[in-house]
Specification:
alpha/beta; globular; single chain; 13 helices; 16% strand; seven-stranded mixed sheet; 7 strands
């Protein structure tokens, strides 16, 4: 139950200064109780943590010290510093933009998260493709063997939903294998890592696949297992913009296409690449880095973000 106690403590620290600790604890306990099993609730209720927290809250000097500590940059040692800036990935930037408090829980405090079934399934598809290409490809039956092995390692059960997901993966990966024989771009690199400076910060990550195009240039491909998005929805997409910069700055190659490959739907959503470095992506990265360095982790609740957030039971501002 250490995880539940850690969630409780993190939630209490986020309460307003004028909100009594007892009221906050009651609300937090109710949220946790709704998410725990009866046995887990019984174990948590026997924990002495509530008494310790209330005792500290009732001590005027302890509360003053805690407030002063919160106002100091106490998380400095946990920030991904490099020189005057930070080391960030595209997912770091997107996470902070969606909700700074969610970024703090996940990337600074590193509170563990239990992946959902769909998240585990997405990881499995990526792993199968990575292992398939790591062995220089092979036959369709060999790809199915990799799927079977990954399914066993992933700890999937035999529910109706999981059987349906496995069939989706089988069909999608068979179709992916067929596409490799079609004329077009020639795959050159898989899971290629990058790390390059952007202003005072460093951007790190890796691209799932890079194809050399017949007419010249390269296509940067990121696999997706979610619902396809239209090209116009991706005009300001952070991930693909940073991938294009990585190709130029880290590998000295020019990407003429940026693509999300929605494997389950057999759909590629392609975007062109702007000439030069898009000003907006530099400004976005600098804005995010500045907020993290200033430890500005206020929540920005919305139904779209909160409904999918793993930390909503601990967040004081979660949208119901």
């Amino acid at each position: 139950m250490r995880f539940a106690e850690l969630v409780k403590l993190a939630s209490l620290l986020q309460r307003r200064d004028d909100e009594p600790a007892a009221d906050s604890l009651a609300d937090i306990n109710a949220r946790l109780g709704a998410a725990l099993t009866p046995l887990q609730r019984e174990v948590l209720s026997s924990s002495p943590l509530d008494e310790l927290l209330l005792g500290a809250a009732n001590d005027t000097r302890a509360r003053a010290a805690a407030k002063a500590a919160r106002e100091e940059p106490t998380l400095e040692a946990f920030l991904p510093r490099r020189g005057d800036g930070l080391v960030l990935s595209a997912s770091d930037v997107e996470s902070y933009l969606s909700c700074p408090l969610r970024y703090k829980f996940a990337r600074v405090l590193r509170i563990p998260r239990e992946p959902t079934l769909n998240q585990r399934f997405g990881i499995l598809v990526h792993q199968v493709l990575e292992r398939f290409h790591a062995t220089a490809g092979g036959s369709a039956p060999e790809m199915m063997d990799l799927l079977a092995a990954a399914w066993r390692r992933g700890g999937f059960a035999d529910s109706d939903e999981e059987r349906q997901l496995r069939e989706k993966a089988r069909v999608a990966l068979s179709r992916y294998h067929e596409r490799l024989r079609e004329p077009g771009g020639e795959p050159r690199w898989f899971e290629r890592s990058f790390n390059f400076p952007l202003g005072r910060n460093h951007i790190r990550g890796r691209v799932d696949r890079i194809d050399e195009l017949a007419g010249g240039g390269y296509e940067l491909i990121d696999y997706k297992t979610g619902v396809p998005r239209r090209a116009e929805q991706l005009r300001d997409d952070v991930q693909l913009a940073l991938y294009a910069l990585a190709a130029r700055e880290a590998w000295q190659i020019e990407a003429t296409e940026r693509t999300y490959y929605y494997v389950l739907d057999d759909e590629r959503v392609r975007l062109g690449v702007e000439d030069g470095t898009p000003r907006w992506i530099e400004e976005t990265v600098e804005e995010v880095a500045g907020g993290i360095l200033a430890q500005a982790f206020e929540p920005t609740p919305s139904f779209a973000v909160c409904s999918m957030c793993e930390y909503r039971i601990a967040c004081p501002a979660a949208e119901k």
